Amino acid sequence: MTAMTPSWTAAFRSAVLSPHETIVLKPSRGFRDQTLRQILHLDGGGEALRVLLTNRYGDRPLVVAAARVAVRKAGGEILPETDAPLTFGGAAEVTVPAYGEVVSDLVALAVEAGTDLAVSLYLPGETGPATFSHTPLETGYVVEGDAVSRSVLPDAEEVDSRFFVSGVDVLAPEGTHVAVAFGDSWFEGTGTTHGANRRFTNLLNARLPRGWVVNQGLGGNRLLTDEVGERALGRFDRDVLAVPGVTHVLTHFGLNDLGLPGLAGERPPGADVLTAGFTELARRAHEAGLVIVGATMGPYAGTIYPGVDTPEGRATRRVVNDWIRTSGVFDAVLDVAHAVQDPDQPDAIRPDLDSGDHLHPNDAGARAMADAVDLAFLRL
Protein backbone atom coordinates (compact mmCIF):
# COMPACT_ATOMS: atom_id res chain seq x y z
CA MET A 1 0.00 0.00 0.00
CA THR A 2 1.34 3.44 -0.96
CA ALA A 3 1.79 5.79 2.00
CA MET A 4 -0.38 8.88 1.86
CA THR A 5 1.42 12.16 1.21
CA PRO A 6 1.51 14.35 4.31
CA SER A 7 -0.26 17.69 4.10
CA TRP A 8 -0.64 20.71 6.35
CA THR A 9 -3.35 20.07 8.91
CA ALA A 10 -4.46 22.25 11.83
CA ALA A 11 -3.24 20.84 15.17
CA PHE A 12 -4.01 23.84 17.39
CA ARG A 13 -6.15 26.94 17.08
CA SER A 14 -6.82 29.96 19.29
CA ALA A 15 -9.63 32.35 18.34
CA VAL A 16 -8.56 35.96 18.87
CA LEU A 17 -10.06 39.29 19.85
CA SER A 18 -9.38 42.94 19.21
CA PRO A 19 -7.61 44.67 22.11
CA HIS A 20 -10.26 47.37 21.80
CA GLU A 21 -13.19 45.11 22.79
CA THR A 22 -15.38 46.77 25.40
CA ILE A 23 -16.59 43.54 27.02
CA VAL A 24 -13.82 41.08 27.94
CA LEU A 25 -12.93 39.12 31.05
CA LYS A 26 -9.57 40.88 31.10
CA PRO A 27 -7.95 43.52 28.86
CA SER A 28 -5.13 43.08 26.41
CA ARG A 29 -1.72 44.74 26.82
CA GLY A 30 1.38 45.73 24.88
CA PHE A 31 5.04 44.67 24.97
CA ARG A 32 8.40 46.38 24.46
CA ASP A 33 11.88 44.83 24.56
CA GLN A 34 10.39 41.69 26.08
CA THR A 35 10.28 37.97 25.40
CA LEU A 36 6.89 36.29 25.49
CA ARG A 37 6.82 32.49 25.91
CA GLN A 38 3.44 30.83 25.43
CA ILE A 39 2.29 27.25 25.84
CA LEU A 40 0.16 25.58 23.15
CA HIS A 41 -1.40 22.18 23.85
CA LEU A 42 -1.55 20.30 20.56
CA ASP A 43 -4.73 18.49 19.58
CA GLY A 44 -2.97 16.50 16.86
CA GLY A 45 0.50 15.50 15.77
CA GLY A 46 2.66 15.21 12.69
CA GLU A 47 6.17 14.88 11.34
CA ALA A 48 6.82 18.65 11.17
CA LEU A 49 5.09 21.88 12.14
CA ARG A 50 4.60 25.56 11.40
CA VAL A 51 3.34 28.39 13.63
CA LEU A 52 0.77 31.07 12.78
CA LEU A 53 1.35 34.57 14.16
CA THR A 54 -1.43 37.14 14.12
CA ASN A 55 -1.62 40.92 14.18
CA ARG A 56 -5.20 40.81 12.96
CA TYR A 57 -6.39 43.71 15.09
CA GLY A 58 -3.11 45.58 15.43
CA ASP A 59 -3.04 49.09 13.98
CA ARG A 60 0.75 49.10 13.50
CA PRO A 61 3.27 46.59 12.10
CA LEU A 62 4.43 43.99 14.63
CA VAL A 63 8.18 43.35 14.64
CA VAL A 64 9.27 39.92 15.89
CA ALA A 65 13.07 40.05 16.05
CA ALA A 66 13.53 36.40 17.04
CA ALA A 67 11.27 33.42 17.56
CA ARG A 68 11.78 29.82 18.64
CA VAL A 69 9.68 26.73 19.31
CA ALA A 70 10.33 23.80 21.62
CA VAL A 71 8.56 21.13 23.62
CA ARG A 72 7.68 22.39 27.10
CA LYS A 73 9.21 20.50 30.04
CA ALA A 74 7.28 22.13 32.87
CA GLY A 75 6.01 25.63 33.58
CA GLY A 76 7.94 27.98 31.32
CA GLU A 77 10.92 25.59 30.99
CA ILE A 78 11.64 23.87 27.67
CA LEU A 79 13.44 20.70 26.62
CA PRO A 80 16.66 22.11 25.09
CA GLU A 81 17.13 19.18 22.69
CA THR A 82 13.82 20.09 20.99
CA ASP A 83 14.53 23.83 20.67
CA ALA A 84 14.48 25.17 17.11
CA PRO A 85 14.32 28.60 15.48
CA LEU A 86 11.22 29.87 13.74
CA THR A 87 12.01 31.50 10.41
CA PHE A 88 9.84 33.32 7.91
CA GLY A 89 10.90 33.09 4.28
CA GLY A 90 14.30 32.03 5.60
CA ALA A 91 14.70 35.12 7.81
CA ALA A 92 14.97 35.09 11.59
CA GLU A 93 13.12 38.41 11.90
CA VAL A 94 9.64 39.08 10.59
CA THR A 95 7.34 42.08 10.47
CA VAL A 96 3.68 41.15 10.66
CA PRO A 97 1.71 43.85 8.84
CA ALA A 98 -0.97 45.82 10.63
CA TYR A 99 -4.19 43.77 10.45
CA GLY A 100 -2.20 40.88 8.97
CA GLU A 101 -0.91 37.41 9.77
CA VAL A 102 2.17 35.36 8.87
CA VAL A 103 3.02 31.66 8.84
CA SER A 104 6.46 30.37 9.76
CA ASP A 105 8.60 28.13 7.61
CA LEU A 106 8.51 24.39 8.24
CA VAL A 107 10.17 23.25 11.47
CA ALA A 108 11.44 19.66 11.32
CA LEU A 109 10.16 18.77 14.78
CA ALA A 110 7.92 15.71 15.04
CA VAL A 111 5.16 16.12 17.62
CA GLU A 112 2.33 14.03 19.00
CA ALA A 113 -1.18 14.89 20.08
CA GLY A 114 -1.06 16.14 23.65
CA THR A 115 2.37 17.75 23.27
CA ASP A 116 2.78 21.11 25.00
CA LEU A 117 4.69 23.40 22.67
CA ALA A 118 6.44 26.53 23.92
CA VAL A 119 6.56 29.36 21.39
CA SER A 120 8.92 32.20 22.34
CA LEU A 121 8.77 35.63 20.66
CA TYR A 122 11.17 38.52 21.18
CA LEU A 123 9.32 41.80 20.67
CA PRO A 124 11.93 44.61 20.53
CA GLY A 125 9.73 47.66 19.88
CA GLU A 126 6.49 48.98 21.30
CA THR A 127 3.82 46.61 20.01
CA GLY A 128 0.76 48.58 21.02
CA PRO A 129 -2.25 46.67 22.38
CA ALA A 130 -1.98 43.05 21.26
CA THR A 131 -4.40 40.90 19.31
CA PHE A 132 -5.21 38.27 21.93
CA SER A 133 -7.26 35.42 23.37
CA HIS A 134 -8.68 36.44 26.73
CA THR A 135 -9.44 33.01 28.24
CA PRO A 136 -6.90 30.43 27.01
CA LEU A 137 -6.71 28.69 30.42
CA GLU A 138 -2.94 28.47 30.11
CA THR A 139 -0.10 30.47 31.64
CA GLY A 140 2.33 32.50 29.52
CA TYR A 141 5.66 33.94 30.63
CA VAL A 142 7.17 37.40 30.04
CA VAL A 143 10.77 38.50 30.71
CA GLU A 144 12.80 41.54 29.76
CA GLY A 145 15.08 41.50 26.72
CA ASP A 146 15.80 38.74 24.22
CA ALA A 147 15.47 35.44 26.08
CA VAL A 148 14.05 33.21 23.34
CA SER A 149 17.03 30.81 23.55
CA ARG A 150 16.92 30.35 27.32
CA SER A 151 15.69 27.00 28.60
CA VAL A 152 14.44 28.52 31.83
CA LEU A 153 12.96 31.97 32.38
CA PRO A 154 13.63 32.78 36.03
CA ASP A 155 11.51 35.47 37.68
CA ALA A 156 9.19 35.62 34.68
CA GLU A 157 5.96 37.57 34.90
CA GLU A 158 3.04 35.19 34.45
CA VAL A 159 0.14 36.13 32.20
CA ASP A 160 -3.14 34.34 31.63
CA SER A 161 -4.07 35.67 28.19
CA ARG A 162 -2.53 34.54 24.89
CA PHE A 163 -1.01 37.12 22.52
CA PHE A 164 -0.08 37.17 18.82
CA VAL A 165 -0.39 33.38 18.29
CA SER A 166 -3.40 31.89 16.53
CA GLY A 167 -2.40 28.38 15.53
CA VAL A 168 -0.06 25.51 14.77
CA ASP A 169 -0.26 23.28 11.72
CA VAL A 170 1.43 19.89 11.36
CA LEU A 171 2.35 17.70 8.44
CA ALA A 172 -0.08 14.82 8.91
CA PRO A 173 -1.10 12.02 6.55
CA GLU A 174 -3.28 13.26 3.73
CA GLY A 175 -6.91 12.63 4.58
CA THR A 176 -6.55 13.22 8.31
CA HIS A 177 -9.89 14.59 9.46
CA VAL A 178 -10.24 17.62 11.69
CA ALA A 179 -13.33 18.97 13.41
CA VAL A 180 -13.54 22.60 14.49
CA ALA A 181 -15.29 23.32 17.79
CA PHE A 182 -16.78 26.67 16.83
CA GLY A 183 -18.55 28.38 19.66
CA ASP A 184 -18.48 30.44 22.82
CA SER A 185 -17.03 29.98 26.32
CA TRP A 186 -18.60 26.53 26.70
CA PHE A 187 -16.20 25.33 23.99
CA GLU A 188 -13.28 27.61 24.89
CA GLY A 189 -13.32 26.12 28.37
CA THR A 190 -14.32 28.82 30.86
CA GLY A 191 -15.05 27.18 34.20
CA THR A 192 -12.58 24.31 33.78
CA THR A 193 -9.26 24.05 35.60
CA HIS A 194 -6.56 26.45 34.45
CA GLY A 195 -3.59 24.66 32.89
CA ALA A 196 -5.11 21.18 33.20
CA ASN A 197 -6.43 20.78 29.62
CA ARG A 198 -9.86 19.64 30.73
CA ARG A 199 -11.85 21.64 28.24
CA PHE A 200 -14.67 19.94 26.35
CA THR A 201 -12.44 19.63 23.28
CA ASN A 202 -9.54 18.05 25.19
CA LEU A 203 -11.83 15.45 26.72
CA LEU A 204 -13.53 14.75 23.39
CA ASN A 205 -10.15 14.24 21.73
CA ALA A 206 -9.36 11.57 24.32
CA ARG A 207 -12.38 9.62 23.01
CA LEU A 208 -11.53 9.82 19.32
CA PRO A 209 -9.89 6.78 17.70
CA ARG A 210 -8.43 8.95 14.91
CA GLY A 211 -8.53 12.55 13.77
CA TRP A 212 -8.99 15.36 16.26
CA VAL A 213 -10.89 18.50 17.24
CA VAL A 214 -9.34 21.99 17.35
CA ASN A 215 -10.84 24.69 19.52
CA GLN A 216 -12.17 27.93 18.05
CA GLY A 217 -14.34 28.74 21.05
CA LEU A 218 -14.41 32.39 22.09
CA GLY A 219 -15.82 33.40 25.46
CA GLY A 220 -18.62 35.96 25.13
CA ASN A 221 -18.99 35.44 21.38
CA ARG A 222 -22.44 35.84 19.86
CA LEU A 223 -24.09 34.23 16.87
CA LEU A 224 -25.67 37.37 15.44
CA THR A 225 -23.95 40.45 16.87
CA ASP A 226 -20.41 41.83 16.89
CA GLU A 227 -19.64 42.48 20.55
CA VAL A 228 -17.05 40.13 22.07
CA GLY A 229 -15.25 39.34 18.85
CA GLU A 230 -16.84 39.20 15.44
CA ARG A 231 -20.19 37.42 15.44
CA ALA A 232 -20.13 33.75 14.49
CA LEU A 233 -21.61 34.46 11.08
CA GLY A 234 -18.83 36.98 10.50
CA ARG A 235 -15.88 34.81 11.55
CA PHE A 236 -17.10 31.50 10.12
CA ASP A 237 -15.08 31.66 6.89
CA ARG A 238 -11.83 32.51 8.68
CA ASP A 239 -12.17 30.40 11.82
CA VAL A 240 -13.76 27.33 10.24
CA LEU A 241 -13.53 27.18 6.46
CA ALA A 242 -9.91 28.38 6.34
CA VAL A 243 -8.72 25.75 8.86
CA PRO A 244 -6.57 23.26 6.91
CA GLY A 245 -7.95 19.74 7.00
CA VAL A 246 -11.38 20.69 8.34
CA THR A 247 -14.11 18.14 7.60
CA HIS A 248 -16.55 18.68 10.48
CA VAL A 249 -17.76 21.59 12.59
CA LEU A 250 -19.44 21.54 16.00
CA THR A 251 -21.30 24.69 17.04
CA HIS A 252 -22.46 26.07 20.40
CA PHE A 253 -23.91 29.58 20.23
CA GLY A 254 -26.88 31.57 21.45
CA LEU A 255 -26.32 31.93 25.19
CA ASN A 256 -24.58 35.28 24.80
CA ASP A 257 -27.22 36.47 22.34
CA LEU A 258 -29.82 35.75 25.03
CA GLY A 259 -27.85 36.87 28.08
CA LEU A 260 -25.63 39.82 27.16
CA PRO A 261 -28.45 42.18 26.12
CA GLY A 262 -29.65 42.05 29.72
CA LEU A 263 -26.41 43.71 30.84
CA ALA A 264 -27.56 46.79 28.95
CA GLY A 265 -31.21 46.47 29.91
CA GLU A 266 -32.17 45.36 26.39
CA ARG A 267 -34.46 42.55 25.29
CA PRO A 268 -32.89 39.38 23.81
CA PRO A 269 -33.61 38.35 20.22
CA GLY A 270 -36.54 36.08 19.49
CA ALA A 271 -36.33 32.39 18.64
CA ASP A 272 -37.01 33.03 14.95
CA VAL A 273 -33.98 35.29 14.66
CA LEU A 274 -31.67 32.73 16.31
CA THR A 275 -32.97 29.80 14.27
CA ALA A 276 -32.44 31.80 11.08
CA GLY A 277 -28.83 32.37 12.12
CA PHE A 278 -28.26 28.69 12.85
CA THR A 279 -29.85 27.78 9.52
CA GLU A 280 -27.41 30.09 7.75
CA LEU A 281 -24.43 28.53 9.57
CA ALA A 282 -25.58 25.07 8.53
CA ARG A 283 -26.14 26.19 4.93
CA ARG A 284 -22.63 27.59 4.68
CA ALA A 285 -21.10 24.47 6.24
CA HIS A 286 -22.95 22.19 3.84
CA GLU A 287 -22.04 24.40 0.88
CA ALA A 288 -18.39 23.84 1.82
CA GLY A 289 -18.89 20.07 2.11
CA LEU A 290 -18.61 19.94 5.91
CA VAL A 291 -20.55 17.82 8.38
CA ILE A 292 -22.11 20.13 10.98
CA VAL A 293 -23.12 19.10 14.50
CA GLY A 294 -25.38 21.56 16.30
CA ALA A 295 -25.27 21.80 20.09
CA THR A 296 -28.23 22.78 22.21
CA MET A 297 -27.62 25.79 24.45
CA GLY A 298 -26.55 24.93 27.97
CA PRO A 299 -28.61 26.07 30.98
CA TYR A 300 -27.74 29.15 33.03
CA ALA A 301 -30.57 29.86 35.50
CA GLY A 302 -29.44 31.73 38.58
CA THR A 303 -26.16 32.90 37.09
CA ILE A 304 -24.22 35.38 39.21
CA TYR A 305 -23.93 37.87 36.34
CA PRO A 306 -26.60 40.57 36.75
CA GLY A 307 -29.18 40.84 33.98
CA VAL A 308 -28.04 37.73 32.09
CA ASP A 309 -30.76 35.37 33.36
CA THR A 310 -34.20 36.62 32.27
CA PRO A 311 -37.59 34.92 31.84
CA GLU A 312 -37.55 35.87 28.15
CA GLY A 313 -34.11 34.35 27.64
CA ARG A 314 -35.05 31.13 29.42
CA ALA A 315 -38.18 30.71 27.31
CA THR A 316 -36.36 31.40 24.07
CA ARG A 317 -33.60 28.94 24.97
CA ARG A 318 -36.15 26.16 25.41
CA VAL A 319 -37.83 26.92 22.08
CA VAL A 320 -34.55 27.11 20.16
CA ASN A 321 -33.18 23.97 21.78
CA ASP A 322 -36.28 22.04 20.76
CA TRP A 323 -35.80 23.34 17.23
CA ILE A 324 -32.11 22.30 17.19
CA ARG A 325 -33.12 18.78 18.27
CA THR A 326 -35.96 18.35 15.74
CA SER A 327 -35.47 20.64 12.74
CA GLY A 328 -33.09 18.42 10.78
CA VAL A 329 -31.01 21.47 9.84
CA PHE A 330 -27.90 19.90 11.38
CA ASP A 331 -26.39 16.55 10.41
CA ALA A 332 -26.32 15.58 14.09
CA VAL A 333 -27.13 17.11 17.46
CA LEU A 334 -24.98 17.36 20.59
CA ASP A 335 -27.48 17.78 23.40
CA VAL A 336 -25.37 19.88 25.75
CA ALA A 337 -28.43 21.05 27.67
CA HIS A 338 -29.54 17.52 28.48
CA ALA A 339 -25.99 16.45 29.38
CA VAL A 340 -25.47 19.05 32.11
CA GLN A 341 -28.92 20.22 33.25
CA ASP A 342 -30.31 19.69 36.74
CA PRO A 343 -33.19 17.19 36.33
CA ASP A 344 -35.11 19.00 39.05
CA GLN A 345 -34.52 22.43 37.48
CA PRO A 346 -33.77 22.00 33.75
CA ASP A 347 -32.96 25.68 33.25
CA ALA A 348 -29.99 25.29 35.64
CA ILE A 349 -26.70 23.40 35.55
CA ARG A 350 -26.60 20.30 37.75
CA PRO A 351 -24.81 21.36 40.96
CA ASP A 352 -21.96 18.84 40.67
CA LEU A 353 -21.29 19.99 37.10
CA ASP A 354 -21.40 23.74 37.86
CA SER A 355 -18.20 25.81 37.98
CA GLY A 356 -19.82 28.02 40.60
CA ASP A 357 -21.07 30.90 38.47
CA HIS A 358 -24.16 28.94 37.31
CA LEU A 359 -23.27 29.79 33.71
CA HIS A 360 -20.27 27.56 32.92
CA PRO A 361 -19.63 23.86 33.51
CA ASN A 362 -16.68 22.65 35.56
CA ASP A 363 -14.30 19.82 34.61
CA ALA A 364 -16.97 17.21 35.26
CA GLY A 365 -19.45 19.22 33.21
CA ALA A 366 -17.01 19.41 30.31
CA ARG A 367 -16.62 15.64 30.52
CA ALA A 368 -20.39 15.18 30.46
CA MET A 369 -20.49 17.29 27.29
CA ALA A 370 -17.70 15.26 25.68
CA ASP A 371 -19.32 11.97 26.64
CA ALA A 372 -22.58 13.13 25.03
CA VAL A 373 -21.00 13.30 21.56
CA ASP A 374 -22.06 10.42 19.32
CA LEU A 375 -18.77 9.49 17.66
CA ALA A 376 -20.60 7.81 14.80
CA PHE A 377 -21.56 11.25 13.49
CA LEU A 378 -18.02 12.64 13.68
CA ARG A 379 -16.52 9.70 11.76
CA LEU A 380 -13.05 11.07 12.40
How would you describe this structure to a colleague?
The chain is an alpha+beta fold. The chain folds into two domains: 6-168; 177-378, SGNH hydrolase (Rossmann fold). 20% of the residues lie in helices and 28% in strands. It has nine helices and 22 strands. The strands form six sheets. Strands 2, 5, 6, 7, 10, 12 and 13 form a seven-stranded antiparallel sheet that branches. A five-stranded parallel sheet has the order 17-16-18-19-20. It has a four-stranded antiparallel sheet with strand order 1-15-3-9, with no helix packed on it. Strand 19, helix 6 and strand 20 (332-334) form a beta-alpha-beta unit. The longest helix has 17 residues, at 271-287. The radius of gyration is 20 Å and the shape is globular. The relative contact order is 0.15.
* Largest beta-sheet characterization: 7 strands, antiparallel
Overall tally of structural domains: 2
Q: Kindly identify the CATH topology of the largest domain.
A: Rossmann fold
- What gross morphology would you assign? globular
Residues in β-strands, percent: 25-35%
Alpha carbon gap, first and last residue:
21 Å
Number of strands: 22
Mean pLDDT: 96
Q: How many helices in DSSP terms? A: 9
What is the fourth-level CATH superfamily of the largest domain? Answer: SGNH hydrolase
Text of the CATH class of the largest domain: Alpha Beta
Q: Over the alpha carbons, how many angstroms does the gyration radius reach?
A: 20 Å
The unreliable regions are: none
Helix content: 10-25%
Structural class: alpha+beta
Which CATH architecture of the largest domain? 3-Layer(aba) Sandwich
GO molecular function, one term: hydrolase activity
Keywords: Hydrolase
InterPro entries: GDSL_Rv0518-like, SGNH_hydro, SGNH_hydro_sf
Pfam families: Lipase_GDSL_2
